[in-house]
Amino acid sequence: MNLLDYGRIFVRRAWIVVLLALLAGGAAYFLSKNQQPIYRSIQTVLIQPARSDNGLTISSKDMLSQYSLLLNSTYTAAKVIDQLQLDMTPGALYSVVKAVADQLTISIKISVDLPDGEMANRVAKAYGEQLVQFRNAENQKVQRADQVNALLQDDPTYSLDHPRPTINAAAGAVLGIIVGAIIIFVLEYLESSVVRRREDLERMMEIPVLATIPE
Fold first, then answer.
1. What is the CA radius of gyration of the chain?
2. If residue 141 lies in a helix (H) or strand (E), which one and from where to where?
3. In terms of domains, do 138 and 51 share one?
4. Are 174 and 76 within one domain?
5. Which of 71, 114, 117, 163 could bridge to 35 as Cys pair (CB 3.0-4.6 Å)?
6. What is the pLDDT along the chain (215 residues), one digit of tens a residue?
7. Considering the entire predicted model, what is its pTM?
């Protein structure tokens, strides 16, 4: 088959691709619009040694994973619930909060996913404050020169995490195009032995057609 044959096939079957793209994209958009929106709030907590000492800096980096474990716990979740008077269980709050260590900036990034963006901000900040309080308590046990401070970089901000109807609709449309192309391939394969045009007969027999009998 040459490019002209492929072009004829596409023109004849293009409605399948268009229909499936519209159906898949429309369904993805409709389902996304009916999902409950979830907002993600990010709070960054900087870990700063009291002095510019290589040993203290390395030690601070090594402690980042422990801070993550401290925050990613139901114990800390229970403290935040008490602080903010939330109507949640520690397990439920634990499941929507994630604290990740950032070795490059020597910080902890706390993300909170909730249907209420303002509440997500409050929770993210409360988690950051828990780490600040923990470091303040630990600093009381050592000399000032050996202290490591935890500082809130800024107030947390939230943005829509999911769903994203436009992106989902585009992904659905692409999936519809792929499925449509597969269907066209299967249909052409099943009908490959059917002679529709003079060119089909010439391709199958590998000989030129000299004349045809009109119907």
1. 31
2. none
3. yes
4. no
5. 163
6. 555 655 666 677 788 888 888 998 888 888 878 888 999 999 999 998 877 777 777 888 888 989 999 999 999 999 999 999 999 999 999 999 999 998 888 899 999 999 999 999 999 999 999 999 999 999 998 888 888 889 998 899 999 988 888 888 899 899 988 998 888 888 777 766 555 566 555 555 555 654 555 55
7. 0.69
